[in-house]
Amino acid sequence: MSGTVADNIDRQSGVIAEPSGGAEVRSDDPAASEGTVWFNTTSGVLKVFRNIAAWSAGGTYPSTHSQMAATGIISAVISAGGTDGSNTQSTSYEYNGTAWATNIAINTACAGPSRGGTQTSALIAGGITDYTPTYTSKTESYNGASWTAETAYGGGTRATMAGCGASETAIVVTVGKTASGHNYTNATYEYDGTSWSAGGNSNYTGQGRYGTGVQTAAVFAGGKNAGGYTATSEEYNGASHTAGNSMATARGYHGAAGTMTDALMFDGDSPTTEIYNGTSYSAGTANDGRVYAGGHGASSTSAYCVGGQADGFGDVLNTTQEFAEAVAARTVTDS
């Protein structure tokens, strides 16, 4: 006999329903296939292949930095700028899913710029250029070989904005800090590769609100202002922001990966991770809670974070964490 079970991913607790076809009896383990159930006569246990979600250590970042702009999928990341805690940085690195390689520097050292695009078509904008602090509107694009100065950000000087997009020619950037103290904005601007134009204002005024998706279909969540962290979330359709269901945990300066209908919000002064399906958030697999990390990825099942500060705004880090799901054999118990 053989049979399969419905997905019972380790994101949350639950039970495995009895397969309609029963379980195969064999002396070894079959080829991995999610949901397959079998009894292994050699080990004397009932097993099932399940889709397991987990964070694991990736390649060490060449510098100990936080507040970088990192974008791209886990096997093709570009990370730029940041701070070592004392000075803003112009360094840039690429990641292939295994190791980081030193890349050509950005033109203006900065910390806390927005990000969007891919490893071969990326855009960063804004940030601070020193610890006076001096806020900037400078924008740079990356084509996989060099950084080029672009039209200055349309919303003026600001830092710790939320940005995302499919390429350097289709980016949306929203909210951010405009000056020292509690000076924030809710303005949104879009970039088409040549110029910035105003989009619909966010429902949130603050900084450290991060998002993911494309210019016409993005989700933004979290953030921090004078009132503290927020758990609010909203979707952007290329013209306006629409408030949606909130996350369970208020967070800011966090990572955001995926699309508007398959997103992962993680870390941000909390180790919790939340999955967004286009309607609501559900609990995911916890990470280490770092803040100000470079965090992005392709989906709710493929993400990364690099650098940043330890949970609670602790030490600046140079570690990389990768999030993935894989089919693995698990023993079925009665607990």
Could you explain the architecture of this structure?
With 335 residues, this protein is mostly beta strands. The protein is 0% helix and 43% strand. The protein contains no helices and 28 strands. The protein has strands at residues 24-26, 37-40, 45-57, 69-73, 76-80, 92-95, 100-103, 114-118, 121-125, 139-142, 147-150, 162-167, 170-179, 183-191, 196-198, 210-214, 217-221, 224-225, 228-229, 233-236, 241-243, 255-259, 262-266, 273-276, 281-283, 294-299, 302-306, 320-331. Strand 24 and strand 25 form a beta hairpin. 50% of the residues are buried.
In short:
The chain is mostly beta strands. Helix content is 0%, strand content 43%. Mean pLDDT is 93; it is low at 1-19.
Report the sheet-strand fraction.
35-45%
Cα Rg? 21 Å
Described by strand count, sense and barrel closure, the largest sheet is:
6 strands, mixed
Helical amount among residues, as a percent range? under 10%
Number of strands: 28
Give the terminus-to-terminus CA distance: 25 Å
**Poorly predicted segments:** 1-19
What strand line-up does the widest sheet have? 1-2-3-28-27-26
| Approximate shape | globular
Written as H for each helix and E for each strand, in order along the chain, the element string is: EEEEEEEEEEEEEEEEEEEEEEEEEEEE
Residue-averaged pLDDT, rounded? Answer: 93
Count of DSSP-assigned helices: 0
The structural class is: mainly beta
